Amino acid sequence: MSGREITPRFAPEITPSVEELEAQERRLVFRQFTHDDAWSLGSLLVELARERQAPVAIDIHRAGQQLFHAALPGSTPDNDAWIARKRRVVERYGAASYLVGARFRAKGTTFEDSSRLDPDAYAAHGGSFPINVEGVGVIGSVTVSGLPQLEDHRFVVATLEQFLGL
């Protein structure tokens, strides 16, 4: 980084409830999702991350194919590993990685202790959100890594809201 501090776009708040996270998923639904949509969404994520000087990596996958990837200054190869682990959670559960972790925490346990999945391959940490197409279902994911997990989640959600005009 250049010595400048990252100015958070979001004020610290109480962690959202499972119900709030589920409501985000019901609201953030696409009519369609094409290669061009992936490029436009990815480009918007890059633009907003640069405005924040956020040291993130960004990934968009659809049906097993990477349609967009960017690594901004300050991101590292570890961010790509986190992206893959969070994306696998979305692919397996059909829900945001942060929501999956929150559901385990609401049951008084953790994803790592109770999912029976390899923590080297799966991470129920914030930052990966399902691409849900109306009438079709979850077809992919958009993932950000590089900020604290709740900020990764909120950044993706806010960008999706802007992209979808909500």
Automatic annotation (TrEMBL):
Stored InterPro entries: PduO/GlcC-like, PduO/GlcC-like_sf, YBR137W-like
Protein's organism: Streptomyces adustus
Family according to the record: Belongs to the UPF0303 family.
Pfam families: HbpS-like
Name by which UniProt lists this protein: UPF0303 protein FNH09_43840
